[in-house]
What does this fold into?
Amino acid sequence: MDRKRYIILILILGTLSALSPFSIDMYLPAFQAIAKDLGTSVEHIQLSLTSYFIGISLGQLLYGPLLDRFGRKKPLFIGLLIYIVASLGCAVTKSANMLIFMRLLQALGSCAGMVAARALVRDLFPVGDIAKVFSLLLLVVALSPMVAPTVGGYISAWFGWHWVFIILTTIAAFIFAGCIYWLPNGREPDKLLSLKPIPIVINFYSVFKQPQFYVYAITGGIASASQYAYLSGSSNVFIGFYHVSQKQFGWIFAFIAAGLIGSSQVNSVLLRSFKSEQVIKVALFIQCLVGLALFTVTFEGWIDKTGMILLIFTFLCCQGFISPNASALSLTPFAKQAGSASALMGFLQMGIGSVASAMVSILSSAYNGSSLPMTGIMAVCPLLGTALLFTGSRIIKKQFIPASAGPLIHLE
It folds into this structure.
């Protein structure tokens, strides 16, 4: 596999993975403007973010079996078309409730890219390189919180928030074209796989009962839920509480995201000397300490805007080590069921994330826009994840990866 083709493949898989985060981050600076334009509260608009998380979570369970049954491309193309239609619907909506519904539909479309990208990584690369590939994909995905809020802030300030969704529609159209021309097919469709409810449930259960899967998938989901708590609460905290402008919020968001990008690439270097299991344990432990410090200084009122930014930056640096390793360790035992495993992992992670997002929205109303709900949930998530990991690692058994599970493409 030549280097040019390899780079194109990483970019396509990365943009498929990044479409959903981009859809989340790009409209965050416009929350205040959307609420004013639609005649509602910011807390009500925050529910459009929660509905998006719910749509991603449930949609992945749908696409997993479809990707295994019909191959990777057909379900992916259908999902991208749904996303394009829903994005246009968001752009022309006149009510908050319709925006919430369209965001749900938009998420149901975008999650096809997330599931397909993870399944194709398992299809196309050696087992030993999966964590490194996920780190490269995270590099592309992490550009989203650096670029999207900044771009979204300027677009909403100059042209109005409706244009944010028009831009998202255009981006999805380019990704669709790239997938048609350059994306490999991955594994062949499994025509024997049943799409009836009972066999699908049995298939998902066969994936979930693997100790290595559920321990690392749920651990990664709980840890990443803190990131979704930050996504849900950051606009209200920085714009509403610290009174920064939409443009300033974009730059703050970009700076914090730089930590996620940098740490994900340091993770690739560390994997040359350490195992994923070792890296994720240390990263979770450090994230626990930072999360507790963040909540304590917020509760006591000892933190200003700069301190908040720096602590969140450090907190999300840890996430750059946790997410790629948790994903790789979750998917390693699977080959034929890669689509279902990817979908179930995404369902668990986004489901937990949607709960964290909803809790931030609800508690923010009760605490009048305080940063305590966001920082409190950010502190609790890594504590729960660490407890699960150290308990679950005792029951994980060594699993044999059959030769038939080998990759289609090897890294040079």
User: Anything to note?
Assistant: The chain has one domain: 3-181+194-396.
